[in-house]
């Protein structure tokens, strides 16, 4: 009889625990979405203090052309002008958080405005991307993985 009561109590408590965890995941997803937008702005403005914090030391950053960088190389590419961003427009952004708000997977589409082509015409890159962020207890949310793929020009 005691075992049955314990099982019934457990059955009543489990949904509440699952709901609490999903609330943590929902809050984490909103936080990560805001951080994604802030990181894009930091890439445009070359806010290296923020980017140092936003990217994990073991970052793997895979560009749409397949080239990979670690954190130091990627940040240096922005400093050197190899990675230039005049604007990054978020077209779609989806965040799924896991593990009670300790990990997040982000996917979306962006349009990057790059410096104009030599003939003066606009230079745009349409990308689909995936990001993995992990919440470090001391450093907060950090990007550990970026992967992007060029999309066809929307003109046709």
TrEMBL record:
Protein name, entry field: DUF4440 domain-containing protein
Keywords assigned by UniProt, alphabetized: Signal
Pfam families referenced in this protein's UniProt entry, alphabetically: DUF4440
Sequence ranges assigned to domain DUF4440 in this UniProt record: 32-143
Residues of the signal peptide: 1-20
């Amino acid at each position: 009889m005691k075992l049955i009561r314990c099982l019934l109590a457990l059955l009543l408590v489990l949904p509440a625990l699952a709901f609490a965890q999903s609330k943590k995941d929902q809050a984490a997803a909103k936080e990560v979405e805001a951080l994604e937008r802030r990181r894009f702005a930091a890439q445009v403005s070359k806010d290296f203090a923020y980017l140092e914090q936003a990217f994990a030391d073991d970052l793997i950053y895979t560009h749409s052309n397949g080239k990979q960088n670690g954190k130091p190389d990627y940040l240096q590419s922005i400093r050197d002008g190899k990675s230039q961003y005049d604007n990054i427009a978020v077209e779609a952004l989806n965040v799924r958080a896991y593990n009670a708000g300790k990990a997040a997977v982000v996917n979306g589409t962006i349009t990057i405005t790059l410096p104009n082509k030599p003939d003066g015409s606009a230079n745009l890159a349409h990308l689909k991307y995936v990001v993995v962020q992990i919440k470090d207890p001391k450093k907060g949310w950090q990007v550990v993985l970026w992967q992007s793929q060029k999309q066809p020009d929307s003109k046709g």
